[in-house]
Design goal:
Helix 6 packs across helix 7. The chain is mainly alpha-helical and about 280 residues long.
Length: about 280
């Protein structure tokens, strides 16, 4: 008997997740490996976005711009360490200004067609902020709150995506945004938030078993779970706007069952900086 398409896709998603997930999580345990992970993801996701929005641009040039965006994220990570150590004479975020200047200079020198130049500047600048800067918020959480909190932020998004997918596939009837994502349902959203709430509690429970301090008091768990559900959904719908505009189904096919790297992190890109903001807001 053939497996239904929805369940088959769920199986593929789960299988690839079990393979990739542990590698990603373990990368968070040591700051240098986190730098390498974020840099790699920024390069891959930026390349996908630039390719999607600039399909006629030379492949080598797209790769070079994506490489530059990744390096900007890496230098920012090292600069944060230097800033917190008191040896950096300026705020680390200024690195992204330098990154933009370099991209603009390269575009001016390399491209003579005004339309190509405008499109590249638009997509690369958006990638610099939307992908490189937002994802680099992982560094802030890691440095200020430790690997445990950074891993919780990451895996909470995974938990939400998994529960939302299962609840949506099983009970989904009322669509959130038929225009941009016909498969997303309110049932999936609420089921995902509920699952994320349970996941955060379980995560802290196991930390206590192993003698580690809890990360988030119970009164904040609901706030974080609701935030993850809403912000992750906004991130997913944001990317859907671009994919529909450029008439592509996935940003690429590099991750079986998930599409491209940008497809996999579209919600994470917005959740990570908001997670850090809420930690600061609640004085956790």
């Amino acid at each position: 008997m053939r497996m239904p398409i929805g369940k088959k896709n769920l199986f593929i998603r789960a299988s690839s997740g079990f393979i990739i997930g542990p590698v990603v999580v373990f990368s968070y345990l040591w700051y240098p490996t986190l730098l390498g992970l974020v840099t790699t993801i920024v390069m891959m996701a930026s390349y996908e976005f630039i390719k999607m929005s600039n399909p006629k641009l030379c492949r080598k040039f797209r790769l070079f711009i994506a490489f530059l965006l990744g390096i900007t994220s890496m230098v920012y990570g090292f600069s944060l360490e230097a800033e917190y150590s008191g040896i950096l004479p300026f705020e680390a975020e200024f690195i992204f200004v330098i990154g933009f200047l370099l991209i603009s200079l390269i575009t001016i020198v390399r491209l003579k067609d005004i339309n190509e130049a405008k499109e590249l500047l638009s997509s690369s600048t958006f990638s610099l902020i939307y992908i490189a800067f937002f994802l680099s918020s992982n560094y802030l959480t890691q440095i200020n709150y430790g690997a445990g909190m950074a891993i919780l932020a990451l895996t909470s998004v995974w938990a939400y995506d998994s529960f939302a997918y299962i609840f949506g596939l099983t009970f989904g009837k009322h669509k959130i945004s038929p225009t941009y994502s016909p498969k997303k349902s309110w049932e999936g959203l609420f089921g995902g938030i509920f699952g994320t709430f349970l996941y955060i509690i379980i995560y802290d429970f196991f930390r206590e078993i192993f003698g580690l301090h809890t990360l988030i008091d119970l009164e904040y768990v609901a706030a974080f779970a609701i935030m993850v559900g809403i912000v992750d959904t906004i991130g997913d719908l944001t990317e859907s706007i671009f994919k529909r505009f450029y008439n592509v189904k996935d940003s690429s096919g590099i991750l079986p069952g998930h599409g491209g790297m940008l497809d996999r992190i579209d919600g994470l890109l917005l959740v990570v900086p908001i997670w850090y903001f809420m930690l600061r807001l609640f004085w956790i």
